[in-house]
Amino acid sequence: MREAMDPWTFVVASYVIGVGATAAMVAWSLLSMKRAEKRREQARKR
Question: Does the record carry Transmembrane helix as a key word (predicted)?
Fold first, then answer.
């Protein structure tokens, strides 16, 4: 009897980590962009 590891667990985990990290980076970029736009508008009002 041969006991082999199932590679699909690692494949799915790597996709979950990759997609999750990409979504986190997009959210972080959007929040940073919103803060920068808000600071720019406040600087223009002065």
Answer: yes
**Residue-wise pLDDT tens for the chain (46 aa)?**
678 888 999 999 999 999 999 999 999 999 999 999 999 999 998 7
Helix, strand and coil in the chain, % to nearest 5: 85, 0, 15
End-to-end CA distance of the chain: 77
Instruction: Give the separation between CA 17 and CA 39, rounded to whole angstroms.
Output: 33
The residue whose two tokens read 């940073």 is 32
Angle at 40 between CA 36 and CA 43, to 5 degrees: 140
